[in-house]
Every structure is written in C-alpha cells, then in structure tokens.
Amino acid sequence: MEFQLGQDWQLSPIKGDTGKAYLGLKNNAKVFVKRNTTPMLAALSKEGITPKLIWTKRAGNGDTFSAQEWLEGQVISTEEIGQRNDVVDVLYSLHHSKNLIQMLEKIGGEIVTPQMMLADYENALPQPVASNRFLKLVLHYLKTHVPTFDEKDKAVVHGDVNYKNWLVCRHYLYLVDWDSIMFSDPCVDVGTFLGHYRPKSAWNSWLLSYGMMPTSENLEKVYWYALLSLLQEVKKYYNRGDFDRMNDGITQLKRIFSD
Predict the structure, then answer these.
(1) Where in this chain does the record put each Aminoglycoside phosphotransferase domain (predicted)?
(2) How confident is the model at residue 82 (pLDDT cuts 50, 70, 90)?
(3) pTM of the predicted protein model
(4) Is the pLDDT of residue 129 over 60?
C-alpha cells in the first residue's frame, strides 16, 4: 500500500517489526522514512551515530514522519557484528555524549531502572515461559542480584542493539531504529551486545577497549543485563509464535548462564 505525504513524497511500507518504516520517493530522490519515531534523530545524526536526517513533516492526522539519508548499505550477520571493533566506538560515543543527554532531557526522556525492566519482563508473561524450569532459575537470579543504578550517572541508551539495528555503509557503521531510546545504565546496551554476540572469555578485553574496567562489579552488572535481554527475547519470540528463534535465545541463555 502506498500513500502520499502532502503533495510531494510518495511512501511505500518497508517490511519490519514495527510497521512504521517506509521508502520515500520524490522524482529521483530516495529517503528512508520512519513514522512517529524519536525527535532525537537530528542530534543522533549530528553525532554521526545514525544516518543524516533530511526532513521532518507532520501529517494531517498528527503523525510525524522523519526522513533520513537513504544509504545503500547492508545489515550484517550475527557473526560479523560480534567481530567488529567499531561497535565499541559507536556505543562509547552514544553513552558519553553530553549533547545527547541535554537533548533527551529537553524532550522529557524517561529514566528506566533495572527494577522497571524486570517488572516489564514479568508483565503479561506467557504461562509456558513463566513455568519453564530453566527460565524460572534465570529469573530468580535476576531478582536476587538486581544491580545498583544511580540516576545521576544516567546515559543515553539505545535499548535494542541486536544485529538487525546495525547498518554498514561504505565501511562505516551506523546504529539505527531508535524507538527504544531512553536514559539508563550504559550496561543495558553493553550487556545486550556482549550477551548475544561475544563469548564470556572475550568480555574483559572488550570492556577495556570500551573504557570500562572489568571489575567484578562491572562484570556482574553486564552479566545481569545480558541475561535479562535474552529473557526478553525469549518472551518476544514466544508471543510471535517464532519458536525457532525463541529456542535460539534459550540456547544462548544456557550458554552464558552455565559458563
């Protein structure tokens, strides 16, 4: 289904999880359009973390459409994302940008604590997931080892750094899809990335390259967020009926939980 935005841009939906992404065409111009995404895109593109923002338009029904530079890049594989050294640079830039903190504060960015994330996981948890013996064991661990989080140390966090949200264009790495952006502990992103794509034996060296000392406290925090992100993935794929990916998530959980 295609539709017009005003009298100029024609939008065609792009298949994806959110159903809010479009290819925008006008004459020979092509842009990537997202509906009702974060107003942070301009600041993020200025930092070079996500592709350049071209324009923002408001439709008659109140929806906001944001257009970014269309890049002929590629989404990379789970194996490749785990081996790329520039992931460290992108996440470090995101988590340590004072400008991004100021911008997210201006638009009322939410501070999300580990307790809130844990409660979100347990909310409407499907009974087969809730009753699974191994998943219950992981959840018990999370409940009894909730990490500390001081809100004055908050950072801008992407919130969903899975491999599908990394785009390579002309050897440059971008992080895309910012619908989950929030204030939180940077270990949310770090733990998610390491838990999915790096063996635990490589966590110490990765943290050092990121600029975080691999102390027992930091490693325990990263481990906690890694487990939680995998539990969230299991719940998501169960709800979608994608049991192959759900089982992949459980397998990865077992790999790092028992390691």
Answers:
(1) 40-210
(2) very high
(3) 0.92
(4) yes
Closest by alpha carbon to 226, among 191, 251, 180?
Answer: 191
- In total, the chain counts a number of residues equal to 259
Among 160, 177, 185, 189, the one annotated catalytic = 160
What is the average per-residue pLDDT within 79-86? 92
SS3 letters for 6-75?
CCCEEEEECCCCCCCEEEEEECCEEEEEEECCCCCHHHHHHCCCCCCEEEEEECCCCCEEEEEECCCCEE
Told to judge if 160 belongs to the known catalytic residues of this protein, a careful annotator would answer yes
Query: Using CB atoms within 10 A of its CB, is residue 4 exposed (0-12), middle (13-18) or buried (19+)?
Result: exposed
> What pLDDT sits at residue 57?
85
Q: Do 187 and 50 meet the contact criterion of CB atoms below 8 Å apart? A: no
Domain ranges of the chain: 3-69, 74-257
CATH value of 3-69 in 2.40.50, 1.10.1240, 2.160.20, 3.30.200? 3.30.200
Are the beta carbons of 66 and 36 closer than 8 angstroms?
no
